[in-house]
Amino acid sequence: MTDPTPAQTSTAADQARAILSRLGVPDAVWSEGGVTARSPIDGSEAGTLAAATPDAVEAAIDRSVQAFLSWRRVPAPRRGELVRLLGEELRASKDDLAMLVTLEAGKVVSEGLGEVQEMIDICDFAVGLSRQLYGLTLPSERPGHHMRETWQPLGPVAIITAFNFPVAVWAWNAALALVCGDPVIWKPSEKTPMTALAVQAVFDRAMARFGDAPEGLAQLLIGERGVGETLSADPRVALVSATGSTRMGRAVATVVAGRLGRSLLELGGNNAMIVTPSADLEMAVRAIAFSAVGTAGQRCTTLRRLLVHEDVAPALLERLVKAYETLPCGDPREAGVLVGPLIDEDAGAAFDDALRQAEGEGGEVLVGGTRPRSPGIYVRPAIVRMPGQTDVVRHETFAPILYVVTWKTFDEAVEMQNAVPQGLSSCVFTDSVREAEAFLSAWGSDCGIANVNIGPSGAEIGGAFGGEKDTGGGRESGSDAWKAYMRRQTQTVNFSAELPLAQGVRFDV
Question: pTM of this prediction?
Answer without folding.
Answer: 0.96
